[in-house]
């Protein structure tokens, strides 16, 4: 049985005539220890999908099974790294992480919790900044705190919603490696939502494009058979990488063109002109 | 030595733009922006204060002359030319008994201020003497189980200020105790919000005078039979009820509009509802709550004067009213002194709340 299973998921926002179906007929199964990436255009329903999986939203139709059981709300077993970090600005780095571990391990003593906090902050190499507030940190540092917060709860699965989207290319590369390192250490299951294809190919075992919404649905998957650990500098020379990349780009371009032609048909402009248009320029 | 350092510091602190402006002026490097900001920040406010005092002086003088001319005219019509001449001499001599009663000039107000301070010192000395006299006696009375003798002389102007501050802070505290918890509940529950909304909309614009009358009706009956002076109770409750609305609405708004990201964090971390309120909702709405409290304190100070006046509760409001009723020669000047004191204290209270507000706020734009 798959570790995480989505069966015929539909998600509709609004009611009656105003209803928009954002996701339709999503089927996905992720095995334990697997790293899966979902790539898609902005506005294609990626965040909706991730919120369904982490339990912030409920599907309109269909069921989501986690370890064979339907999910009910969010759970400490599935750690979430949000797109916009979502650190609480009135707490320091240490306090942000502490709040999470205190909820995840209510039975541990304060000393144990503090050790845990220190350990995970060390892991993202932010120990010198432990008493700083989020506003004193750079974007990359903030995201690392968010990573530490999610991982300190020792989730069995990590769900990442465009975690590196707001970062510059260099920081992004470093953090990708850091996340891969952490994931590689104890082989947790990971789901990455991203709009950066290279990031997906570099990090994941499988890539699944999301056909853009409304009515977004998952496209056929692409397996990535590149040995780990992967070397970023040599990726461009890797034949497999190039092929996979081209195949996905081609696929997404096709979808894009399809949608463009659909859009052209949808809005035919009427052939009318203002009545006194001519007089104004006389 | 110490003196010179402070002097240097003061000039540096106060005249930094000014000094550098002049230095640059002589070396030919005057930056236009520096001069402009110096002009705007130092010269313009100072000039406007001087202009204000000047206009006040001229206005007061003209009113004084009109009133004096009227008095002489009246004496001429009623009692004949001799009486008019006597009146003219009397006014010119500065005799207190026949001075025209009108808007006091800045110098008169300043003199009144000093005489009020002197009065305060006299009353203080009186109090100290009274205390000295009665300490031994009071000890004996307490040992015998009797109430000690307390000072019952009239309060000085400074005492009135502190009485007013006491009333306003009691009222502010009451508003805080009612409005913040209620605002949190209203903000958290849409049901409560719709239940209380009409209530808030109707009572918010009610005048302080009406609040006072309402509180008076209730407190009078509640305290029936007790000999206690209820004027303080009535006035601080009225002040609290009058001023709590800003805090109530700001708290409710702050609590109901917490950033969705923070709520998601609370959900993902699975915080309990108690934890969620105290760790996420309240900290994030603190800036708005404090904005409300700031408005509440300034409204409280503003309505206090009117309510003290009505309730006959000791304080600046009563002081103003009594001086007006008194109609003594320097009463008008004392009223103006009270006006300035009220304004300055209101300004200081506002600054105080602003400091607290800045202290508890976090920069929303910086810390996504």
* Fraction of residues in helix of chain A: 25-40%
Largest sheet of chain B: none
Beta-strand fraction estimate of chain A:
15-25%
Quaternary state of this entry equals heterodimer
Shape of chain B: extended
In what range is the share of β-strand residues of chain B? under 5%
| Uncertain residue ranges of chain B | 1-18, 364-368
Distance between the termini of chain B: 50 Å
Helices of chain B, by number, come to: 12
Word description of this protein:
The complex is a heterodimer of chains A (282) and B (368). Chain A is an alpha/beta fold and 282 residues long. Chain A has eight helices and eleven strands. In chain A, a hairpin with a 2-residue loop joins strand 4 (61-66) and strand 5 (69-70). In chain A, helix 2 crosses helix 3 (110-123) and helix 2 (93-104) packs parallel to helix 4 (139-152). The radius of gyration of chain A is 22 Å and the shape is globular. Chain A starts with a strand and ends with a helix. Chain B has 368 residues and is mostly helical. Helices cover 82% and strands 0% of the residues of chain B. The longest helix of chain B has 48 residues, at 32-79. The relative contact order of chain B is 0.08. Classes of the chains: A alpha/beta (282), B mainly alpha (368). Chain A binds chain B through residues 54-56, 73-76, 80, 82, 84-91, 99-100, 103-104, 133-135, 153, and chain B through 261-262, 264-265, 267-271, 275, 279-280, 283-284, 286, 362-364, 366-368.
